[in-house]
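Box 3.1 A note on notation
Throughout this textbook, protein chains are presented in two layers. The first layer is the amino acid sequence; the second is a token string describing backbone geometry. Keep the layers aligned when reading.
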Amino acid sequence: TSSLHEKPPRWNWMNNPIIAKELKGRMRGRQGFIILTAYLGLLSLVIYGVYTYTIQNTYYRNPGLLQQAGKQVFLIVVLLEIILTGFIGPALTAGAISSERERQTFDQLRISLLSAKDIVIGKLGASVMYLLLLIVAAIPLQSLAFFLGGVGMAEVLISIWILTLSAVNFCTLGLYFSSINKRTSIATTLSYSTLVISVLI
């Protein structure tokens, strides 16, 4: 009888079982590595193109403009990262809750020892951590701007902070529409529509 009166365990983001389950499932499959490879590959191509163009058109005209060119390369990379994060973030969370309903596993999740708050934090935390992996993996590419100059460690830290906040925002947007819609396709459409409208406005 004492077990009936025991309080359910309190989970936090560090030991949330949903975070562990989602991350293991994502990293064991091909999708996680495909997204990471495509993300870094696209960034590398853009950086190579911008870096080559900048060197050819700046150095021979005025070597003193290299620092300004370095800032431009850095800003383009960070802007591209924000765009890619906005594209990947909602895709990771738009089906977080709605897919559970489609697979008819949401009721099993609700009767577990996890509270609704723990479920939301687990789903959101797993997606944000994966996006943080993408952001951290791109830091060496951002540091290429150091060769041109004009960019310091403070700018890099600020960009990482902005990208982290953007990742949380984009993932939260997808999770919101996933929680109020029963179909993943509708949640995905609403997430990207809201994101596009907010950018245009």
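The two ends are 59 Å apart (CA to CA). The chain is about 75% helix and 0% strand.
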